[in-house]
Design goal:
heterodimer; A: alpha+beta; YefM-like fold; Double Stranded RNA Binding Domain; 2 domains; three-stranded mixed sheet; three-stranded antiparallel sheet; 9 helices; elongated; B: alpha+beta; Metal Transport, Frataxin, Chain A; 3 helices; 24% strand
Chain lengths: 156, 79
Amino acid sequence: MNDYTRRGEVLPMTTTISIAEFRKDMRKLLEMALSGREVICFDAKSRDRETCSFIKTGLLQDILKAYSFKPVVFLDDETMTHNIHLDELKLYAYADTVEEATEQLIDLVIDYISDYIDRLGLFLNVPDRKEQYPYVLRISHCQNRDEIKRLLFGSN
Amino acid sequence: MGTCSFRVFIMVCKKMGLVQRKTGNSFVWAGIDPQGEYRQVSIHVHVEGRDIPSGTFNKIVKDLGFANEEDFFKFLDSK
């Protein structure tokens, strides 16, 4: 039993600091975050008291692996087109071949992610678009088309 | 459930008050619908003018806020 539990208080699980403290020792806080600790920063002068988390990118990417993509690929008998539905982002492609539909879907994904990030203020205020945020974040870490393709259709 | 012509899809989007813009290789129809909800549908530029296959049309109908295909066409025919 330590001092906190003896006093009936909640253990401090995170490191919470003000902007002023953050500015004073950014290097130390960066090292803390790189060691795996979440550093939460707040603006003491701000009315809404919103906070921001500083977290190691590799750990964030590990967390985001829980948000996997499951594209549905099928042939439409009437139009004889190959369709691919990516329900996670509400994006749909259809073309004469699977290869064309795949490339179309990747184009749609790239355009959508770019639009989403440019207009975060809008999308984070629309409930069914806000829930796409982890998927958007995951794709935004991809460096190129091939990586996006592996993420959507591979085993990532 | 069946296919939907591209022209009809555009007519419904316009009637809903959605506006088209081009971003990269996508045509994006987006805006606030008559019920005040934000709606957005992305279509690849290479399928412009092509009939929308039934399964994909069904998804788009739901994303536009309609309960089903019947509601979609009812809205199209309404004044």
